[in-house]
Design brief:
eight-stranded parallel barrel, single chain, 17 helices, alpha/beta, TIM Barrel, eight-stranded mixed sheet, Rossmann fold, binds ligand 1PR, 29 strands, 2 domains
């Protein structure tokens, strides 16, 4: 049997390759149009944008061979864009034509009642329980979706409805989660990032003999109206800050308000005892090995993982082979989305060789990242955009920023912006550029801040430098440039265990339509309930409490479930 994967050159397909290796399958990549004739089974793990997928297929001469392959009756498994290219066209790129195998169009999600992209773990519902096929799709499990465009489920059009195998609901929209007819099976979600549920589905499809994969569609249209609430779960993200310790080993570290060095000694010889190990004051705090921790969090049920290369602003990540080796090794152990951040910007090697931010991101994607996270460079890009506007407004992108170039090539869902804001306290009668963003809350810091108001200032280089930009200006700017998600840290709350900065999270959540991940300050499971109930964010991230094993991911999810907040269990 010759089992092939199709990569049109634009997206991160390493996750799927890692998944198949994990499942024990050997495969080849389609490397020329002739390979379609050799394939007896084909998976198309399309990520990115509809237009770039069609362009990528066209430029390699793959579009017609793909059409012929599918028409030949040999098994096809399409993932995400690999599902969407089966349709006639997509609103994402009206000038491109799809394969037209499913007689319907892909449209954009409405953002009137929800954030877009639809990003996270959602359920599936079979259309016709008699029409399940044998792939191992399971209504009791959750799968990972990340997309802004979808095929609406329309039972009034029997020619397209007969393709629909299962549906999902986001907000009040019911859309196609999987299609299945004859030799074609395709999912809008990513099984390769869907943890054990996705592994089970892929193993189920791969293990079937060719004849067992055929499926007969229902003959009658089956109506499906939206329920009061969709099935998208709140995500729990575990974040690992990685840097070299004083011996030159890459370790997971953790700061208190971004200071990752051990505090003053508690013994006369300068060592600190207790906690995970005996430690030395002033040394970089070492909380474990990145790959081992990543594997532990995957096994513990983390919905996503982040690896932040926190000192990469000092040198180009392209020269940091040990860090890239860690990303590769982590991606082989983890089958949920993996975000990699740090140093994503245009750089020049010591020998004068220039590298674009897109190249740096591409290196992370090829190493196994599903999303990349941009911090420092995002602040500078928004500053440049606002300068160009000259009227104090938000301005327009010029197509050259890291966010724009990466989003164009890999899709906006692959670009996260990590924000490192710090509170700036001012008198309550402050008059100045950030007046409309002032928070009149209860300061939790020093005595001198009592009675004051504050705004949130952006920083770069891990909080080392303040910039003349507010968190709201940055959030609005990066959304306009094409970021797909925001990780919202707080330097004030980082490592304190005081809980998320609810004022900050509310402010950013209401400023943008893209998903927001609240970060910094989690000290107990109830803090996650608080941030989801009070702000409506899509995800919450923690580091210290998980690294020190003070709170388990399972504890967080059980507490959320008890509070009636939907989680993936
Ligand atoms: O600026 O594009 O090179 O990206 C650098 C990245 O490294 C940024 O995402 C920045 O947030 C991160 N970073 C830089 N320095 C530090 C540091 O700690 N000294 N880490 C740092 C930021 C914050 C979170 C942390 C949460 C939750 N750490 O990553 O995980 O605050 O912590 P908690 O639950 O323990 O409170 P670029």
């Amino acid at each position: 049997m010759s089992f092939y994967l199709l990569d049109y050159g634009a997206g991160n397909v390493q996750s799927l390759a890692n998944t198949l290796t994990k499942l024990g399958y050997e495969f080849k990549w389609i490397a020329s149009p002739d390979d379609f004739d050799k394939a007896t089974s084909l998976i198309f793990p399309g990520v990115g944008a509809f237009g770039s997928a069609i362009d990528g297929l066209n430029s390699r001469g793959y579009l017609e061979p793909l059409r012929k392959y599918i028409a030949s009756g040999r098994p096809y498994f399409g993932i995400c864009i690999g599902l969407q290219v089966l349709f006639q066209a997509s609103a994402e790129s009206p000038s491109h034509t799809g394969l037209g195998i499913v007689p319907s169009r892909i449209e954009e999600f409405s953002s009137a009642d929800k954030s877009v992209p639809h990003m996270g773990w959602n359920s599936v519902e079979f259309l016709d329980p008699e029409h399940k096929a044998n792939e191992g799709l399971d209504e009791s499990l959750h799968y990972y979706y990340v997309h802004s465009y979808r095929a609406k489920y329309d039972w009034t059009h029997p020619e397209s409805a007969q393709w629909v195998h299962s549906t999902t609901q986001y907000g009040q929209e019911v859309f196609v989660a999987s299609v299945c007819k004859n030799n074609v099976f395709a999912t809008q979600f990513h099984p390769e990032k869907s943890g054990p549920a996705g592994l089970k589905l892929l193993a189920g499809w791969l293990s079937q003999p060719q004849s067992g994969r055929t499926s007969v569609p229902p003959t009658q249209p089956i109506p499906r109206a939206p329920k009061s609430k969709g099935g998208l779960t709140k995500r729990i993200v575990a974040c690992m800050d990685v840097r070299s310790n004083d011996d030159g080993d890459l370790v997971v570290t953790k700061g208190d308000q971004y200071d990752v060095r051990e505090k003053a000694p508690s013994t006369s010889d300068g060592t600190i005892t207790g906690g995970l190990a005996t430690r030395t004051a002033g040394a970089v705090r070492n909380l474990g090995k990145p790959v081992a921790l990543a594997a532990r969090y995957f096994a513990a049920g983390a919905d996503e993982l982040c690896l932040m290369n926190i000192t990469s602003f000092r040198h180009s990540p392209l020269l940091d082979q040990p860090m890239l080796a860690i990303v590769r090794a982590a991606a082989e152990e983890v089958f949920v989305p993996l975000t990699i951040g740090g140093g994503i910007k245009d750089t020049v090697d010591p020998d004068g060789t220039p590298h674009s931010a897109l190249e740096v991101a591409g290196t992370y994607f090829r190493a196994g990242a599903d999303k990349v996270s941009v911090a420092t460079e995002a602040v500078f890009a928004v500053e440049r955009m606002r300068e160009r506007a000259k009227d104090g407004g938000i301005g327009e992108g010029d197509g050259t920023s890291a966010i724009e170039t990466i989003a164009h090539a890999y899709g906006r869902q692959a670009v996260v912006v990590s924000i490192d804001p710090r509170r700036v306290y001012v008198e309550p009668d402050y008059v100045g550029p950030y007046k409309n963003e002032l928070v009149f809350g209860k300061p939790d810091g020093a005595e001198k801040e009592r009675g004051k108001a504050w705004w949130y200032q952006c920083t770069v280089k891990g909080g080392r430098e303040n910039r003349p930009l507010s968190v709201v200006q940055l959030a609005e700017g990066v959304e306009k440039l094409g970021a797909g998600e925001i990780i919202l840290n707080s330097i004030d709350r980082d490592g304190t265990g005081l809980g998320f900065d609810i004022d900050l999270v509310k402010l950013v959540r209401k400023s943008v339509r893209i998903p927001v991940v609240a970060s910094s300050g989690a000290g107990k499971p109830e803090h996650f309930v608080e941030v989801f109930e009070k702000t409506g964010v899509e995800a919450a991230l923690a580091a210290g409490i998980f690294h020190r094993e003070e709170v388990r991911i399972q504890d967080v999810k059980e507490t959320l479930a008890t509070a009636n907040i939907t989680v993936r269990t």
